Amino acid sequence: GDSVTQMEGPVTLSEEAFLTINCTYTATGYPSLFWYVQYPGEGLQLLLKATKADDKGSNKGFEATYRKETTSFHLEKGSVQVSDSAVYFCALWDTGANSKLTFGKGITLSVRP
Amino acid sequence: GAVVSQHPSRVICKSGTSVKIECRSLDFQATTMFWYRQFPKQSLMLMATSNEGSKATYEQGVEKDKFLINHASLTLSTLTVTSAHPEDSSFYICSQFMAGSAYNEQFFGPGTRLTVL
Q1: Cβ contact B86:B15 at 8 Å
Q2: Which of A103, A109, B4, B39 would staple B44 via disulfide (CB 3.0–4.6 Å)?
Q3: In chain B, what residues touch A106 (CB-CB under 8 Å)?
Q4: Do B41 and A105 touch (CB under 8 A)?
Q5: pLDDT tens-place string over residues B51-63
Q6: Could you report the per-residue pLDDT of A48-81, keeping only the tens digit for each?
Protein backbone atom coordinates (compact mmCIF):
# COMPACT_ATOMS: atom_id res chain seq x y z
CA GLY A 1 0.00 0.00 0.00
CA ASP A 2 0.87 3.67 -0.09
CA SER A 3 2.96 5.23 2.65
CA VAL A 4 4.75 8.45 3.49
CA THR A 5 7.79 8.64 5.72
CA GLN A 6 8.93 11.88 7.30
CA MET A 7 12.07 12.54 9.26
CA GLU A 8 11.76 12.39 13.02
CA GLY A 9 11.17 15.60 14.90
CA PRO A 10 10.81 18.00 16.49
CA VAL A 11 13.06 20.49 14.76
CA THR A 12 14.21 23.70 16.43
CA LEU A 13 15.97 26.38 14.41
CA SER A 14 17.07 29.95 14.87
CA GLU A 15 15.47 32.63 12.75
CA GLU A 16 16.98 32.94 9.25
CA ALA A 17 18.37 29.41 9.37
CA PHE A 18 18.04 27.05 6.41
CA LEU A 19 15.33 24.42 6.68
CA THR A 20 15.13 20.95 5.18
CA ILE A 21 12.43 18.47 6.11
CA ASN A 22 12.82 15.09 4.47
CA CYS A 23 9.93 13.14 3.01
CA THR A 24 9.96 9.88 1.06
CA TYR A 25 7.07 7.87 -0.24
CA THR A 26 5.93 4.57 -1.65
CA ALA A 27 2.97 4.38 -3.98
CA THR A 28 1.38 1.83 -6.26
CA GLY A 29 0.43 4.38 -8.88
CA TYR A 30 1.68 7.78 -9.96
CA PRO A 31 0.86 10.04 -7.04
CA SER A 32 0.53 13.74 -6.55
CA LEU A 33 2.59 15.02 -3.62
CA PHE A 34 1.76 17.67 -1.06
CA TRP A 35 3.01 19.53 1.93
CA TYR A 36 0.43 20.67 4.44
CA VAL A 37 1.06 23.02 7.35
CA GLN A 38 -0.88 23.26 10.59
CA TYR A 39 -0.44 26.41 12.64
CA PRO A 40 -1.38 26.28 16.33
CA GLY A 41 -5.13 26.10 16.80
CA GLU A 42 -5.87 25.95 13.07
CA GLY A 43 -6.72 23.31 10.50
CA LEU A 44 -4.28 21.87 7.99
CA GLN A 45 -3.59 24.17 5.07
CA LEU A 46 -2.14 23.21 1.73
CA LEU A 47 1.35 24.70 1.55
CA LEU A 48 2.45 23.43 -1.85
CA LYS A 49 2.00 20.57 -4.25
CA ALA A 50 3.53 18.83 -7.27
CA THR A 51 1.68 16.52 -9.60
CA LYS A 52 4.42 14.99 -11.75
CA ALA A 53 8.10 14.13 -11.72
CA ASP A 54 10.53 17.06 -11.60
CA ASP A 55 7.74 19.52 -10.78
CA LYS A 56 8.67 22.05 -8.13
CA GLY A 57 5.99 23.29 -5.79
CA SER A 58 6.60 26.60 -4.07
CA ASN A 59 4.78 28.94 -1.72
CA LYS A 60 5.73 31.45 1.00
CA GLY A 61 9.43 30.83 0.37
CA PHE A 62 9.07 27.06 0.77
CA GLU A 63 9.99 24.72 -2.07
CA ALA A 64 9.81 21.00 -2.75
CA THR A 65 10.72 19.07 -5.89
CA TYR A 66 9.05 15.82 -6.95
CA ARG A 67 11.90 13.34 -7.34
CA LYS A 68 10.61 10.14 -8.85
CA GLU A 69 14.02 8.47 -8.99
CA THR A 70 14.50 8.83 -5.24
CA THR A 71 10.76 8.81 -4.38
CA SER A 72 11.27 11.97 -2.36
CA PHE A 73 9.64 15.35 -1.85
CA HIS A 74 11.84 17.20 0.61
CA LEU A 75 10.68 20.57 1.89
CA GLU A 76 13.18 23.45 1.98
CA LYS A 77 13.26 27.09 2.93
CA GLY A 78 16.28 29.31 2.73
CA SER A 79 15.52 31.52 5.71
CA VAL A 80 12.91 30.55 8.28
CA GLN A 81 10.92 32.99 10.36
CA VAL A 82 9.33 32.68 13.79
CA SER A 83 5.95 32.68 12.04
CA ASP A 84 6.91 29.44 10.28
CA SER A 85 6.62 27.57 13.59
CA ALA A 86 4.00 24.90 12.92
CA VAL A 87 3.50 21.21 12.20
CA TYR A 88 4.33 20.12 8.65
CA PHE A 89 2.79 17.09 6.99
CA CYS A 90 3.93 15.43 3.80
CA ALA A 91 1.15 13.65 1.92
CA LEU A 92 0.38 11.89 -1.31
CA TRP A 93 -2.73 11.33 -3.37
CA ASP A 94 -2.51 8.21 -5.43
CA THR A 95 -4.68 7.83 -8.51
CA GLY A 96 -7.12 4.97 -8.62
CA ALA A 97 -10.58 3.93 -7.65
CA ASN A 98 -9.97 4.50 -3.94
CA SER A 99 -8.06 7.74 -4.11
CA LYS A 100 -7.35 9.33 -0.78
CA LEU A 101 -4.72 11.37 0.96
CA THR A 102 -2.02 9.40 2.76
CA PHE A 103 -0.16 11.44 5.36
CA GLY A 104 3.21 11.22 7.01
CA LYS A 105 3.41 11.56 10.79
CA GLY A 106 4.09 15.25 10.69
CA ILE A 107 6.99 17.14 12.15
CA THR A 108 6.92 20.08 14.54
CA LEU A 109 9.09 23.04 13.61
CA SER A 110 9.93 25.65 16.21
CA VAL A 111 11.79 28.77 15.15
CA ARG A 112 13.30 30.88 17.87
CA PRO A 113 14.06 34.59 17.50
CA GLY B 1 -8.76 29.48 1.20
CA ALA B 2 -12.09 28.06 2.23
CA VAL B 3 -13.04 27.97 5.90
CA VAL B 4 -14.09 24.80 7.69
CA SER B 5 -15.15 24.86 11.32
CA GLN B 6 -15.48 22.06 13.85
CA HIS B 7 -17.47 22.02 17.05
CA PRO B 8 -16.65 21.40 19.76
CA SER B 9 -12.91 21.99 19.70
CA ARG B 10 -12.49 19.93 22.83
CA VAL B 11 -14.75 17.51 24.67
CA ILE B 12 -14.38 15.34 27.73
CA CYS B 13 -16.96 12.66 28.39
CA LYS B 14 -17.58 9.62 30.54
CA SER B 15 -17.17 6.13 29.21
CA GLY B 16 -20.37 4.82 27.64
CA THR B 17 -21.72 8.15 26.48
CA SER B 18 -22.07 9.31 22.88
CA VAL B 19 -20.40 12.38 21.48
CA LYS B 20 -21.34 14.30 18.34
CA ILE B 21 -18.79 16.36 16.43
CA GLU B 22 -19.91 18.84 13.80
CA CYS B 23 -18.00 19.89 10.73
CA ARG B 24 -19.23 22.92 8.82
CA SER B 25 -18.08 24.64 5.68
CA LEU B 26 -18.63 28.34 6.14
CA ASP B 27 -18.18 29.68 2.64
CA PHE B 28 -18.59 26.88 0.12
CA GLN B 29 -20.61 23.76 -0.61
CA ALA B 30 -18.84 20.47 -0.07
CA THR B 31 -19.92 17.46 -2.07
CA THR B 32 -17.47 15.19 -0.31
CA MET B 33 -16.29 15.18 3.28
CA PHE B 34 -13.59 13.17 4.98
CA TRP B 35 -13.11 12.26 8.63
CA TYR B 36 -9.64 11.58 9.98
CA ARG B 37 -8.31 10.43 13.29
CA GLN B 38 -4.91 11.37 14.65
CA PHE B 39 -3.13 9.75 17.56
CA PRO B 40 -0.27 11.57 19.31
CA LYS B 41 2.83 11.67 17.13
CA GLN B 42 1.05 9.67 14.44
CA SER B 43 -0.16 10.58 11.02
CA LEU B 44 -3.75 11.36 10.12
CA MET B 45 -5.65 8.17 9.40
CA LEU B 46 -8.66 8.37 7.11
CA MET B 47 -11.73 6.93 8.82
CA ALA B 48 -14.43 7.47 6.24
CA THR B 49 -15.52 9.37 3.17
CA SER B 50 -19.03 10.67 2.74
CA ASN B 51 -20.93 12.25 -0.10
CA GLU B 52 -23.93 14.47 0.51
CA GLY B 53 -27.13 12.47 0.59
CA SER B 54 -25.51 9.04 0.59
CA LYS B 55 -23.99 6.66 3.08
CA ALA B 56 -20.41 7.03 4.18
CA THR B 57 -17.69 4.71 2.93
CA TYR B 58 -15.60 3.48 5.84
CA GLU B 59 -11.96 2.48 5.73
CA GLN B 60 -11.00 -1.03 6.65
CA GLY B 61 -10.95 -1.54 10.38
CA VAL B 62 -13.27 1.36 11.21
CA GLU B 63 -16.50 0.28 12.89
CA LYS B 64 -19.53 1.74 11.12
CA ASP B 65 -21.79 1.34 14.13
CA LYS B 66 -19.24 2.93 16.39
CA PHE B 67 -18.54 6.01 14.30
CA LEU B 68 -21.77 7.25 12.76
CA ILE B 69 -21.36 9.76 9.99
CA ASN B 70 -24.16 11.91 8.67
CA HIS B 71 -23.71 14.21 5.69
CA ALA B 72 -27.13 15.79 5.63
CA SER B 73 -26.31 18.91 3.65
CA LEU B 74 -23.58 20.41 1.52
CA THR B 75 -22.35 22.45 4.45
CA LEU B 76 -22.63 20.08 7.41
CA SER B 77 -21.27 16.69 8.32
CA THR B 78 -21.43 15.10 11.76
CA LEU B 79 -19.44 12.32 13.36
CA THR B 80 -21.02 10.61 16.35
CA VAL B 81 -18.84 8.42 18.51
CA THR B 82 -21.30 6.02 20.11
CA SER B 83 -20.73 4.44 23.51
CA ALA B 84 -17.33 6.04 23.74
CA HIS B 85 -14.51 4.29 25.59
CA PRO B 86 -11.06 5.51 26.63
CA GLU B 87 -9.46 3.96 23.55
CA ASP B 88 -11.59 6.31 21.42
CA SER B 89 -9.75 9.28 22.88
CA SER B 90 -8.08 10.96 19.96
CA PHE B 91 -7.95 14.03 17.75
CA TYR B 92 -10.65 13.98 15.08
CA ILE B 93 -10.28 16.13 11.98
CA CYS B 94 -12.70 16.67 9.13
CA SER B 95 -11.96 17.93 5.68
CA GLN B 96 -14.20 19.03 2.90
CA PHE B 97 -13.81 18.79 -0.80
CA MET B 98 -14.97 21.81 -2.72
CA ALA B 99 -17.36 21.10 -5.55
CA GLY B 100 -15.82 21.98 -8.88
CA SER B 101 -12.27 22.15 -7.52
CA ALA B 102 -9.33 19.97 -8.42
CA TYR B 103 -9.73 16.44 -7.13
CA ASN B 104 -7.10 17.00 -4.51
CA GLU B 105 -8.38 20.27 -3.07
CA GLN B 106 -9.36 19.55 0.50
CA PHE B 107 -9.97 22.07 3.25
CA PHE B 108 -9.44 20.96 6.81
CA GLY B 109 -11.17 21.83 10.04
CA PRO B 110 -9.13 22.70 13.15
CA GLY B 111 -9.89 19.36 14.79
CA THR B 112 -11.70 18.15 17.90
CA ARG B 113 -9.86 16.71 20.87
CA LEU B 114 -11.93 13.91 22.45
CA THR B 115 -11.02 12.60 25.87
CA VAL B 116 -13.02 9.69 27.27
CA LEU B 117 -12.65 9.08 30.98
Answers
A1: yes
A2: A103
A3: 43
A4: yes
A5: 877 888 999 999 9
A6: 999 899 999 999 999 999 999 999 999 999 999 9
